Amino acid sequence: MGRIFIENHGGTRLVVCRFCKTYLTNRSELISSRFQGSSGRAMLFHRAWNLDYSEAQHRDMMTGKHIVRDVMCRICHKKVGWMYEFAMEEAQRYKEARVILEKALVDEEDGFPDPAGAPETHEQPPS
User: Fold this and answer.
1) A Pfam family for this UniProt protein (predicted)?
2) Strand locations in 56-114 (E)
3) Residue 90 in 3-state DSSP?
4) In this structure, CATH architecture of domain 12-109
5) What is the 3-state secondary structure (H, E, C) of 9-32?
6) How many Å apart are CA 52 and CA 74, to the nearest integer?
């Protein structure tokens, strides 16, 4: 097994694995906190890092049929949520390639502002 590299994209409010405190994402990536997971409330994010993914599975969820992958912390291998691969219903397609993190499985911590003063965003800088 090779080295495991951990990404940290900063932010003033960090979302970390509850079990090992590995950085997963930051609050600026949040789309909605009005989701429900198997352990309770959950949050939908544009992107998250330091995750491993299960095989794709068909699931019947409260909002319809989806193809999803469970997501696990890359360090401690605990399940922290899932990722939407495909939504069968057109109205649910905004979730595709987005990550759900369950509030009971993650913590929020204070982060740090960008010293260069760059705005927090989920978009890539222009090349």
Assistant:
1) Yippee-Mis18
2) 57-61, 64-73, 79-87, 99-102, 106-112
3) helix
4) Beta Complex (2.170)
5) CCEEEEEEECCCCCEEEEHHHEEE
6) 5
Q: Which two tokens mark 107?
A: 């913590």
**Chain-centroid distance, C-alpha 48:** 4
Average pLDDT over residues 104-127: 70
If you average pLDDT over every residue of the chain, what do you get?
90
Alpha-carbon span 19 to 24, nearest angstrom: 12
Q: Provide the residue ranges of all domains of the chain, joining segments of one domain with +.
A: 12-109
Residue whose structure tokens are 């509030």: 103
Burial code of 73-91, b = ≥16 C-beta within 10 A, e = fewer? bbbeeebbbbbbbebeeee
DSSP assignment string, 47-63: ---SEEE---EEEEETT
Provide mean pLDDT across the span 94-106: 98
pLDDT of amino acid 120: 57
